[in-house]
Fold Acetyl-coenzyme A carboxylase carboxyl transferase subunit beta.
Amino acid sequence: MPWFKRADKGIQTPTEQKKETPDGLWYKCPNCKTVTSMAEHRKNLNTCVQCSHHDRIGSKEYFAILFDDNEFTELDENLTSGDPLSFVDSKPYPQRIASTQKSTGLKDAVRTAYGKVNSQNITIACMDFAFIGGSMGSVVGEKIARAIDHARKTRSPFLMISKSGGARMMEAGFSLMQMAKTSAKLALLSEEKLPYISLLTDPTTGGVTASYAMLGDFNIAEPGALIGFAGPRVIKETIGKDLPKGFQSAEFVLEHGFLDFIIDRKELKNRLSELLSMVLLPEDVTTASKTKKAAKAS
Ligand SMILES: [Zn+2]
């Protein structure tokens, strides 16, 4: 007689009674399943220590990675969305905005700021996927347009970090107008010979890909990022063919000529500085780095 006998087949414990490790202590990579402490994972800029899988992060983390000593001045901090269409889905749009602002601590899906990256002045706009899927509505468009104006006024380069599900449904046509507005502002930036670098992160899709994200003097991406316009299912149904492996990954998009290069997050800051030092006009190089160079030369 065995001392243990399984009376029922399979695991019977209901999900809510299963024991989980507490959140925030350990990190398990969704790609290679390596487990590391959360502290180690954060130190590695939220990329896997084993396979370098890049986790999604928000504007707070990107600003901390890029700006010297995490010092920056935020632009148009309090711009929030109206409700031009009196839109209601499962709840009215103003209510959705208010509850998302409360849960994320963000005002909308983009934050814009200026500061220094390795002593070089720069204006950065960074999207937050946590805010209604990083959707582009009128506030996102307006803040990006104003950030570009700020770059023009201060003659600083402009970096856009995109992370978006596309245009914001609740603002319909008003969202689509942001594509034209931001593109027109980028044309002015280009006329004034100021560099625009576009960083596409996971995911960059829809109207964002179709406007400012693909208009950079350099279009760069994080490894493994999903980059596309329409979703794979829609494309598959339209063309009636199976899609190739790795379709819409940053690596696939690079191979097909839509990206200039892929950059590991851990190298982002220094590679960005190198790039800017190659393309900036001498008069737009910040005094601080000029002084440093002068000191080195003497
Ligand atoms: Zn991994």
User: Anything to note?
Assistant: Residues 29, 31-32, 34, 48, 50-51, 53 surround zinc ion (CB under 6 Å).
